[in-house]
Amino acid sequence: MDYKSEIIEEQGVQIELAHFTAGEVTELYAILHVEPRGEMFEAQLARLKKGEKELMAMPEMADAQPVFKRYFLSDATNQAPLIHEEDSCTISYIQQPPLDGSKIALWLYLQRGTDISQQNGSTVVSHNGYQHIWTMGLMDTTTDTSYMQTWNTLLSYIDTLKHFHATLLDNCIRTWFFVRDVDTQYNGLVKSRRQCFTEQGLTPDTHYIASTGIGGTPADPKAIIQMGCYAMTGFDPQQRRHLKALTHLNPTIEYGVTFERATLMQYGDRNHIYISGTASINNKGEVVHIGDITRQTHRMWENVEALLAEGGMNYDDVMHIIVYLRDCADYTIVKSMFDQKFPHIPTVITLAPVCRPTWLIEMECIAVRKAHNPFPNF
Q1: Fold identical between 1-113 and 118-234?
Q2: How buried is 135 (Cβ within 10 angstroms: 0-12 exposed, 13-18 middle, 19+ buried)?
Q3: CA torsion sign, 367 to 372 to 374 to 378?
Q4: pTM
């Protein structure tokens, strides 16, 4: 794993980059931050775009192609229409304001050494018999409840998977659910997802899907729920393992939600771990350290560390981190803590309430480590 951080002074853009190579394929995760300079959104966007060009000109980025992008926006409804993107990869726009005072931040995932195409509204990465299917920005605006919007969005995604001869049960690896007004709308999402999963064969006796369910406002004012997904075809079921860390965490079904704490995917040349949204919780499903942002942060780190360890990794293998805060006033202390503990890992901290009001902070990450497994390379 190699990390790089560069500040483009003229543009006021910080580029944080992690890149990993094994076998024929290089993976790159980048997070771009814009220094707030008191100007309008268009000016910040223009500087970000120039920073992105600087990123793509770096030697590490030679021949890299984007797989997906996520824009973190301070006002998605008004800002998303101003971002004119080429149709080079799947993209999500979500209102989760960066807490550094800027109006926009950008997370990019790129690869080199694979075939990347656009099919049926998804980015498809093909290599060694695998198809990696990334689909972002899914939503339904024909109904007006979180329950029905979740239901219709999931059904639409199931139809998308059929195009690739895939299913939720067999092929979906990771989901993200962004919820407008999570304190009041999350329950409808939970009920709808649980019912849909049951109908699709996802039960306590089979498995669920690594996921983040977090506060986030879609750009379309009619949308309550927005979903992003990652699925795969061409892998042996033995390549996938769900991580529990039962010394620290309990199965989510015990408190009525249906997601896996983390998923390990194994390839001939590397392993991936997808860590779900993780907060300050114990193995009884109880919120720990209510009201204390510092202690909640430490417990959250401990929980993620336990999940990584179960998959044979540690924080040195983490490619990126997204941090979600309920209270923007906690930003200064949390930023200081993350800078001290993870000075090299690309990280973005956003305003996004967690699904329980007493949780002050949540994080997610993706980790990768070289491996020698009896499966085809990535």
Answers
A1: yes
A2: buried
A3: positive
A4: 0.97
Q: How far apart are CA 125 and CA 138, in angstroms?
A: 19
At 86, which amino acid appears? E
Q: What is the pLDDT of residues 198-245, one digit of tens each?
A: 999 999 999 999 999 999 999 999 999 999 999 999 999 999 999 999
Cα–Cα nearest to 297, from 331, 254, 345: 331
Candidate CATH numbers 3.30.1330.40, 3.30.420.40, 3.90.1210.10, 1.20.1730.10; the one for domain 118-234 = 3.30.1330.40
How high does pLDDT run on average in the chain? Answer: 97
pLDDT at 87: 82
Query: For residue 86, is pLDDT > 90?
Result: no
- Kindly write down the DSSP assignment for every residue of 47-88, as one continuous string: HHHHHHHHHHTSGGGTT-EEEEEEEEESSHHHHGGG----SS
Nearest residue to 341 via CA among 307, 296, 298: 298
Instruction: Evaluate if residue 171 carries a pLDDT over 90.
Output: yes
